[in-house]
Amino acid sequence: MSQTKRLFLILGDQLDLQSAALKDFNPQFDEILMVESARESDYVWTHKAKIALFLSAMRHFAQALRDLSYPLTYIKESPLSIVEAVKAHLLQKKISHLVCIEPGEWRLKVAIEGLSAELNLQLDMREDDHFFCTHQEFSAWTEGKKELRLEYFYRLMRKTHNILIDAEGNPEGGQWNFDQDNRKPYPKKGPGIIDKPLSFTHDAITKEVLEYIGKAYVEHPGSLDAFDWPVTREQALEALDYFVEYRLRNFGVYQDAMWTDTPFGWHSILSSSMNLKLLNPREVVDAVLIAWKKYSLDLSTVEGFIRQILGWREFVRGMYYLDMPQMAKDNHYKHTNKLPDWYWTGKTDMACMKDAIGQTLQYGYAHHIQRLMVTGNFALLAEVLPSEVCDWYLAIYVDAIEWVAGMALFANGGRFTSKPYIASGAYIKRMSNYCNDCKYKPDIRFGESACPVTTLYWNFLIKHQNQFEASPRTR
Ligand code: SF4
Predict the structure, then answer these.
(1) Does the pLDDT value for residue 403 go beyond 70?
(2) Which residues line ligand 1 (CB under 6 A)?
(3) 317-322, long-range: CB within 8 Å, 24+ apart, which pairs?
(4) What φ, ψ does residue 291 adopt, rounded to 5°?
């Protein structure tokens, strides 16, 4: 064990007692620092519920550390940035050895490395083990490849981790992908009864946080009225158990479906718990595999869910660390428009955008198709500057860490998606009931009742006709 005093920094999205953050911690010499920084909530205009979730989860984690007698300094509501607060603490305590997990956000990683150089620290930045794929493995996979595609990465992950692989080494059910079974809209009469996600009573810590955010961040977007996110590991585990028992069975088939006032559908809404590291994705995948057998669930729903965790989540995160900092500047189509103001209020006549943004302001959540094919699709078709859209995603969704927000806008050209994700109003009409009560008509392209999504879609196709003709997937 080290005999030099070390400072272990734990960030707000690194809340796991079992992680590499605390490996080899020596309570005799070492100490832990956690910082609530107001700047983290201001550098993008963060949703109140997201700030509340981070603070409540951090304070509960701090309580768990104290209960285990870890020596902890917890700085509440600091006006400093995280790095400034760490610097002040290191100087005050005369500590020159800093241990941390690699931050999920590039800017913070660079800032901590900068601090280390400035103070001549001994920096021990450890890889985050809450992902199946390490940076080294991801980077090795990309070597020599002209095109980086989710499907091949996902197959490799399935084989490497022996997930949904049969005794002969083939994919369970004879195919890798059950997307065709997983793209159904709700029945014409609506989704019917959906088992609601698990609810949590607010304890004293959460109540205090909600009261504080309600006063200190009054101008920030979003509401706290419906705040109901897991804020401890115990709650996150309960939410996982509940999901696999009651909600997973219909996740697959309806994962792309949308319906007015149906904010969660059959989705797990476990992403915020995984991204705060209250849950490890390995235990989420294991729970789903056990439920598959226990409740005789369809393979298509299980594969559809595992693809999101083992495939997309790992792939987008791998690409983020591979391509940053360039990724943040990418703007393939050279779009320059401002994000419409109504992205922050939901005040628009477009029923699809109103519902997707309205529920986002209420809960800090929308599911992947609402993000990709409603708000993301519109922003791309309306030629909005990609960094403005990324900042909006980062600000408004409780589960968004910068690496999560990368795929909607085709901002890096064909680097990791073979085509832009675009759709006309016809897709939204097929996958939802939004168009039924909309002022616009999804199949009309011109005139007063033309659907803006459809008009912009055709505008986009015409503008980029050459690109679409050149690719076999879009020709
Ligand atoms: Fe959205 Fe167009 Fe449908 Fe209205 S008609 S809900 S704008 S897709």
Answers:
(1) no
(2) 350-352, 425, 428-429, 434-435, 438, 440-442, 451-453
(3) 317/131, 317/403, 317/404, 318/133, 318/135, 318/138, 318/141, 318/153, 319/148, 319/406, 319/415, 319/416, 320/106, 320/402, 320/403, 320/406, 321/106, 321/135, 321/138, 321/403, 322/135, 322/138, 322/139, 322/142
(4) -65, -35
pTM: 0.93
Probe residue for ligand 1, chosen from 353, 378, 437, 440 as the CB with the greatest number of ligand atoms within 8 Å? 440
Query: If you measure from the C-alpha of residue 238 to the centroid of ligand 1, how many angstroms do you get, rounded to a whole number?
Result: 37
Residue-wise pLDDT tens digits, 413-430: 666 676 778 899 999 999
User: Closest by alpha carbon to 342, among 265, 273, 303, 396?
Assistant: 396
Residue 367 has phi, psi (to 5 degrees) of -85, 175
How far is ligand 1, taken at its centre, from the CA of residue 432, in Å? 10
Task: Name the closest-CA residue to atom 3, ligand 1.
Answer: 435
User: What pLDDT does residue 470 have?
Assistant: 83
Within a 10 A sphere around the Cβ of 325, how many other Cβ atoms?
A: 9
**What is the tens place of the pLDDT at every residue in 154-166?**
999 999 999 999 9
Closest ligand 1 atom, CA of 442? 5
The closest residue, in CA terms, to atom 7 on ligand 1 is 350
**What DSSP string describes 21-32?**
GGTT--TTT-EE
Cis peptide bond N-terminal to 79, omega within 30: no
Pick the atom of ligand 1 nearest to 454's CA: 2
Six token digits for residue 274: 């995984």
* Ligand 1 centroid from CA 434, angstroms: 6
Q: Which residue has the tokens 């920084």?
A: 37
